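Q: What structure does this chain adopt?
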Amino acid sequence: MKNLVLMEPHSFTCMAIRTLIPEDVKIRGALKGYPPLQSMLDAEMIDIVIMEIYDTNLFPMDGIDFIRRNVHHWNRVTLIICTDVDNIFLIKELMKCKARVLISKKDDIASIQHAIDKGISGDYYCSSNLLAVVNADNNQLSLTSSELRVMSLLLNNNTPIEISEYLGVSYKTVQTHKRNVMQKLGARNSFGLLKIGYEYKAKL
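A:
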């Protein structure tokens, strides 16, 4: 019998996913954070992980960083990502990780069930919704030169007021560029912008 663990911050979603797990797979737990999942991986207690890429802190890069740090486990443990992330940058990062299955929570129940079954049986699968985002116009990810300039200055620990003075633009303009960068990169707050911004800048 295979052992499975769920890492999902939302209780309702966790309960829904539980109903899709075949009876011959034992659910060892439903977790809301990375430390207990790390312990179970290190103790080799599980064969399958179904996880959202953010935990209760709601920061998706934490999940991607967790997956990268544990790359040595994904040859032995089947990684199934079930996410509501629809940002092209984050989806491309997930595709580079060793996830066997990528599921969009926007998929219908039958598709999610099919994807989970594929992962449990050892097959690969990627949601058509996630593929559609990746295959869509990549302009969503392109930052304008002004947005790149503002992001670079933010990454160098400048405040929006300092940036507005340095660039000779209004504070409101800087905030607009910052908001656009956050939206394009999928950052939910300023800390997230810094973390994702460093990842994005490293790829330029």
